[in-house]
Amino acid sequence: MASEKTLALLRRRLCDPSFVYSAFKSSPNGNYSKLKFLISNTITEACNNSVLLLGPRGCGKGAVVDLVLEDLKSELPEIISVARLNGLLHSDDNCAVKEIARQLCMENKLLFSKMASFDDNSQFMIDMLRECGLAHKMIIFVLEEFDLFTQGKQRLLYSLLDAMQTLTSHSVVIGISCRMDADQLLEKRVRSRFSHKKLLFTPLTTDDMQRLLEHLLYLPTDSSLPSDYLKEFNSNINNILSDNKFKEILDLLLAADNSISNIQRFLYQAISSMHFQTELLTLDDLKSAFSYHQRQPMLDKLQDASILELYILVCMNRLESREQDSYTFNSVMKEYKAIQDAYKTSDNYSKSVCQRAFEHLIERELISFANNRLRNLSVEYRPVRLLLSSQELYQSLKSNASCPAILQRLLNYETYR
Amino acid sequence: MYVTPERSMKKSSAKTPKSPICSPRTPGSVASRRSLRFSSSPQTPKSEKYKRNNEDSLENTGSSKKCRRSLLAPEKTPSKRPSVAPATPNPPESRKKRRHASLKAKKHDKKRCYYKKVVYDGVKFEVDDDVYVKRRECAESDEDDPEQEECRICFETGSSLMIECDDCLGGFHLRCLRPPLRKIPEGDWICEFCCAMKSGKKILLPTPPKGKKRQRTAREKLLSGDLWAARIERLWKEPNGTYWLKCCWYLIPEETTAGRQPHNLRRELYRTNHVSDIEMESVLRHCYVMKPREFGQANSEGDDVFYCEYEYDVHWHSFKRLVDVVDGENDEEAGIDEDWKYPNDPDCDTEDDSDFDDDTLGKFSSQDIPTHELAANSRRGRIFGLHKIGLKKIPEHIRLHKPTDLERAKSLLLLAALPKTLPCRTKEMEEITSFIKGAICKNHCLGRSLYIHGVPGTGKTMTVHTVLKNLRAEVDIGRMRAYNFVEVNGLKLASPENIYRVIYEALSGHRVGWKKALSILNERFSEGTKISKEENRPCILLVDELDLLLTRNQSVLYNIFDWPTKSDSKLIVIGIANTMDLPEKFLPRISSRMGIQRLCFGPYNHQQLKEIISSRLKGIDVFEEQAIEFASRKVAAMSGDARRALEICRRAAEAADYRLNQTSLSSKSSTEGKHLVGMDDVESAIHEVFQAPHIQIMKTSSRLSKIMLAAMVHELYRSGLGEVIFQKLATTICSICSSNREVPPGWDTLMKVGCKLGECRIILSEEGAKHRLQKLQLNFPSEDVTFALKDCSEIPWLSKYI
User: Fold this and answer.
1) Could you tell me which residue, A124 or B416, shows the higher pLDDT?
2) Nearest chain B Cα to A108, which residue?
3) Is residue B377 a part of any domain in this protein?
4) What average pLDDT does the structure give for chain B?
5) In this protein, which residues make up the domain named ATPase AAA-type core (chain A) (predicted)?
6) Is the minimum CB–CB distance between A95 and chain B shorter than 8 Å?
7) Nearest CA distance, B641 vs chain A (angstrom)
8) What b-and-e string marks burial along A384-404, b requiring 16 or more CB atoms within 10 Å of the CB?
9) Is A193 on the interface with B (CB under 8 A)?
10) Which of B376, B700, B762 has its CB closest to that of A111?
């Protein structure tokens, strides 16, 4: 019972970005306090601002913005209205302006018309900015995937940033992007109007990571769970966090991807495999989650390839090691036949069966067409490439129990001509 | 100090430095707030609840009441002003409205006669005046409307000095006080009764002697809700001879749903959008409701001065600032604005417009919600439902906030805050002025065109606006012909052809399709047909971002530059763009029509930038001299963009402010003393603006990404090529790892790492589906990678490979 509750609590925490990032709310040099200071200052001074949040994915750019906006909304009700745009959805100027008009209408309970033209909508936006400025209201534009707004003539950015050059409007433009060169993408007249404030979101340092883990995993002492269970659970977590094996796992995990979202996913995996009987998180859970995390999709794909498919792959690899860069199904078939003739294996299949296997390999993206040009040609004449390296192939053949021994030897062209 | 026989107010010139400035912080009114009255309450914001009024404590109550009813002529006051004409308290802003009204006055209706001015009972009432209006239920007659306030203690109106309490606004003779005061004290003064009330004591107010009722002034009655105040919108005479007026009501804070808010001033009123017709009979006399700026300067209007900054929507119970509070700068736009803000319906004929558009106006303001609402974003220029926007309560932080020096500096450095004067561009200004004046001379107007170019942020548009503002002033005093001004921004048009529509709409107020607009404009400019009555004026067309109008066959540009060459066009075109050689990109027939008049705005050099910054910061001493110098030199070396320089300074001020905030939070005691914006702040601001953050990202990236970057640099150096294939890179990484006792990562992991780096654009990569054949390329110079990873404490062996 208690463990179910714990599980639910921990899962809820891990899925809630505002909880995860509240760990860093208090640090004075954190992006949260910087951004909050910036926006609240803009509100009190009744001016305009623009800022760009840069950082790799999964470092909490959007979450921090959400957190700040939520806090400010509760501190200063009624004053803030937010228009959110995403570059993936609204990179077209026309559609972006319409979306802004729609959201502003929604927020202020005005009637919105889908029929309005670009001019109407942009005029409405500017009027709205002015009216809101007169009413001491602040409009915050959040542009996610900011780099995608820079395609085309950048009309939207220009009109947003140009509207901010007047005293009547009170607005903040927050651009969120994972591209480091996002501000270089702006056209020069747009760039000149942009304030060039940048907040950089970096992955966590080791200390911060430790703090985050504690923040996420320790159960709150004031919850409804039985107190001895709480004690046990927390001391167990304490043991795990100080365990060297755990640290190793963590290091390996972070070596590939040190973003916060990666940690979140990993912990979620671990918690989901927690046993109800033991009621505690164990190191084994973490280990299994880690092994799950370290899946190698390419090798997994090879694991359940059929023998014939493996033959075809090996043939292609032999062709490549002969420095033959361009080959088609037919040349692969020739190699296959040569091998079959030389070694007389039991895996001699007809051409049509081989072609089926070949097409199957293309579907699974273990091999691909070398180019997109000769599209109307039939499959067997189009040049193909192998997408696997010989090391990967060798590794998977070795680990595949059903693989005939000859294949492994055949892989090396130099020894088996 | 105004010392009047019946009563003098203490002059509140005492300015203790910590006095909170009570007037709301509107950026536009910064300058006006230096007037004496506005900086006078030496109180902390907490005890300020009733303090706020001291600023409006009317210095000289009775001094010059210029408009009074005939019966009540008081003893002569030593007023310097002639007391004949009612001085309307708001001269500049109402110019156009008055013009409007005079138009109306001319028009003689069968039934009603509209007037601009009415002399009623010997008092002149004008449109746009503010008046007291009698409330019906309160049947106090004119007779007990005292012009002079009586002392609260002795109930006499005497000729000795009086002082006004800053809290209850009551007047006291100096001699009646206990202990009597010799002279008016500096700063705030609160009467003993208010003091006692505040400390919770009960006190008996002195009762008036028998037979004498305490008289209340109109101001008191208004503030206690026994009178109304209203603004005259229109005046007319009914056929039966009675005079009527349409008025727009004012409300006292207590009558709003939000009630009196702590930041409300004692004399504050709200203008409402509630309009009604009343008879002239019920008008009592003039009062003066002023905008904050005028209020700050007003000193001789007497007791009946009120303060009004907000409009109150009676239907939605929401507040909004009055428009002209903010824009002192938007004057030049007003010319066009008024044309299309309340445009006539396209389908109604223009003849009886004056009545019509007033009716539509009334529809918006006086009636309840329209029966079927139109979408707010549907028709340009006619916005439905925007009046709903407003705050239910005016937030306190806006009016109680007292800006520190840093904050004032920041607001002055805002790009939006246009300076009064434009330094460093006098030569260009003269050139533009002479160009326009040369074109609009005497009675004929030559069509001409001018091309202005320069890099962004060199003040092109602003200079033109300033010139036009100056010219408008000249038009006002009659030294120049009136002209129309149309501004179009190429980037704000949906398509280049839309420019016709926008121009036509600006000139006539009608909305038509662009083809129709083009034909009408063609008629007007080439053949001289007039669109509407006053279209004989010359027209200045400012096209910003001209290069955006470049279409394939360049017909838009051709038309625009063709019109000025026509003899009757009276069109002056000013085109602004960034590139110097734009005319060379045009077809020859366009560039020949464009003429050779060009004006170049060069980038600012560091002295000019410094002058621009320090002219804005005049009087505020927060920046170190060298800091400004540094910023301006740096920007001048990079781009010469004034916007950039201002932004850097603002950023530096912000950083200093943030630092200050943090230290005061942590140490709890705000360290007194100067907090200058120093070199460090400017340095970090410049760093933020000019430096791409990729080095920081490389430094903090994951272990494998670092190895990958190092291997990439290594591989690129070895091969001498610009790009590397993933397969090769992966083998290199594996060999590097194994030779340094690192577990070699799987290829799939490497793939993932590569994609992550590609996302941040630290490397450029082909799509991931190509897997082993993917080509990778560094997006930044390899020196940056070397610099970032050179002394990496985590993986010390990395430096071998880079």
Assistant:
1) A124
2) B389
3) no
4) 70
5) 51-197
6) no
7) 7
8) bbbbbbbebbbbbbeebeebb
9) yes
10) B376
Please, which pLDDT band fits residue B409 given cuts at 50, 70 and 90? Answer: confident
Which residues of chain A neighbour B704 with C-beta distances below 8 Å?
Answer: 255-256
Partner-chain contact B376 A112, CB within 8 Å: yes
One domain, residues B460 and B519: yes
The alpha-carbon gap from A229 to the nearest alpha carbon of chain B, in Å, equals 37
Say whether both B546 and B588 belong to one domain: yes
Q: How far is B48 from chain A (nearest CA, A)?
A: 19
Nearest to B416 among A76, A165, A368 (CB): A165
**pLDDT tier, B794 (very low <50, low <70, confident <90, very high otherwise):** confident
Task: Give a yes or no: residue B274 inside a domain.
Answer: no
Tell which of B25, B291, B331, B389 to mutate to test the A interface (max A CBs under 10 Å). Answer: B389
- CA–CA min distance A343, chain B (Å): 31
* Closest partner CB to A203 (pick from B394, B702, B730): B702
Task: Return the CATH number at B743.
Answer: 1.10.10.10
Pair B697, B762: CB distance under 8 Å: yes
B443: CATH:
3.40.50.300
- The total of structural domains in chain B comes to 3
Query: How far apart are alpha carbons B61 and B63 in whole angstroms?
Result: 6
Same domain? B561 vs B653: no
Average pLDDT (A372-385) is 83
Q: Decide if pLDDT at A1 tops 70.
A: no
Q: Tell me the chain B residues in contact with residue A133 when contact means C-beta distances shorter than 8 Å.
A: 326
Note the ipTM here: 0.90
Name A377's Cβ contacts closer than 8 Å, sequence gap at least 6.
none
Give chain A's radius of gyration (CA, Å): 29
What is the CATH number that goes with domain A300-411? 1.10.10.10
A118, A179, A196, A208, best to mutate vs chain B, most B CBs in 10 Å: A196
pLDDT in tens, B768-792: 778 888 899 998 888 888 888 888 8
Give the chain B residue nearest A26 (alpha carbons): B662
A76 touches chain B (CB under 8 A): yes
Work out the pLDDT band at A372, boundaries 50, 70, 90: confident
Domain around B508: 426-601
Question: Which range is least confidently modeled, B197-201, B340-344, B391-395?
Answer: B340-344
Residues B582, B454 within the same domain: yes
What pTM, to 2 d.p., does this model score? 0.77
Indicate if the pLDDT at residue B231 is higher than 60. yes
Give CATH 1.10.10.10 domain extents, chain A.
Answer: 300-411
Domain annotation covers residue B466: yes
DSSP B55-122: GG--S-SSTT-----GGG--S----SS-SSSPPPS-TGGGHHHHHHHHHHHHSB-SS-EEESEEEETT
Whole-number pLDDT of residue A417: 53
Q: Does A326 touch chain B (CB under 8 A)?
A: no
Pick B389's closest partner by Cβ from A108, A162, A189: A108
> B566 and B450 in one domain?
yes
pLDDT at B690 over 50: yes
- Residue A78 has its nearest CB partner, among B391, B704, B762, at B391
A256–B745: do the CB atoms touch at under 8 Å? yes
Task: Compute the Cα dihedral for A146, A148, A153, A156 and give only its sign.
Answer: negative
Query: Would residue B785 count as lying in a domain?
Result: yes
The 10s digit of each residue's pLDDT in B31-84 is 333 333 333 333 333 333 333 333 333 333 333 333 333 333 333 333 333 333
Q: For chain A, where do the domains classified as CATH 3.40.50.300 start and end?
A: 46-200
CA–CA min distance A175, chain B (Å): 15
Do B743 and B760 have their domain in common? yes
If you average pLDDT over residues B469-481, what whole number do you get? Answer: 83
Domain boundary among the residues B601, B624, B643 is at B601
Answer whether A135 sits within 8 Å of B411, measured CB to CB. Answer: no
- Look at residues B672, B690, B708 and tell me which one is the last residue of a structural domain: B690
Helix, strand, coil percentages in chain B from 3-state DSSP, rounded to 5: 40, 15, 45
Q: Are residues B457 and B565 in the same domain?
A: yes
Q: Where are the alpha helices (DSSP H) in B342-455?
A: 353-365, 396-400, 405-413, 426-439
CATH top-level class for A46-200? alpha beta
> Exposed/middle/buried for B741, CB within 10 Å: 0-12, 13-18, 19+?
exposed
Interior CA angle at A60 toward A58 and A65, to 5°?
145
Are both B704 and B758 inside the same structural domain? yes
Nearest by Cα to B763 from B706, B704, B709: B709
